[in-house]
Prior knowledge:
Blueprint lengths: L1 H4 L25 H28 L6 H23 L5 H9 L8 H23 L16 H22 L7 H23 L5 H11 L5 H24 L1 H19 L6 H15 L3 H13 L3
Helix pairs in contact: 2-3, 2-5, 2-8, 3-7, 4-5, 4-6, 4-9, 5-8, 6-7, 6-9, 8-9, 9-10, 10-11, 11-12
Amino acid sequence: MESTRRGRPDAAQQPVIQRQSAPDFFDTSFEWRRVFAEAWGTFLLVLVAAGGGVVAAMSGGRVTLGMMVVAPGLMVMAIIYFMGAVSGAHLNPAVTLAFAVRRDFPWQRVPGYIVGQLIGGIGAAAFLRAMFGTIGALGATLPGRGVTSGKALAMEVVLTAGLVNTILGTASGARNIGTNGAIAVGGYIALAGLWAAPITGSSMNPARSLAPDLVRGDLHTTWIYLVGPAVGALIGVAFEWILMIGWGAGVVSTVDNIIRPYFLKRGLKVHTLALLFALLGGVQAFGFVGLFLGPVVVICSEGWR
């Protein structure tokens, strides 16, 4: 009571541990901590995602497909809670790419994040191999029986675009933080896996797929899980602009901020209006494939400098 009368709070009212707030996300002196967080978080994610397939094969199916696809979503949810404020909990090169393209994340920090994610993923795959060998293809993501490479690629593109939209819609800047982000992102990963895992393994993450393939020495289908998420991330950013600022302005903004600068850096003289008409014409004539055919037509018509 004496301490209360002197204006100091009672001991029962004082927190046992005074947690320091996370360092400024753009303070470069703490970048090593953020890269470490990405490596550790990706290690845990790949350990659960690939480990589910390994343990299922080892235990004779006691880990079911439903368990295997829900577990990574729950792990991502936990990671966002415990380290989202530190590194943003990207855990995925496609997500880091999406944040950079949307200009929430500096491009000069992208390589460090991706290296950290790859180190974490490869470390998890190496741990699983040391523990259990290459049983269950080391939990690799593979196209399902009867699924062609083209269909698997298209599925990874679509799934990743939805994941990126979910992340960009709930993130704070370039960080996945808070209850909304954790539940939405973790829930999407689990939901995508519940219906799409038999088709592609529902990777949506180059680090998650590349790590087991590298460690087991089989890269035959790895390209699907590198190209698909990368393309899906770019489409997700484009859709995010459309959702935020409207269809017409969104298409023009996407052309002007992503596609045209890409061509200009490579010496192409491309007008925004020409690209816009090429994209719209391509979509009208060829549907989804037109998103890629339109710019090709512009390249052929404009020529190199």
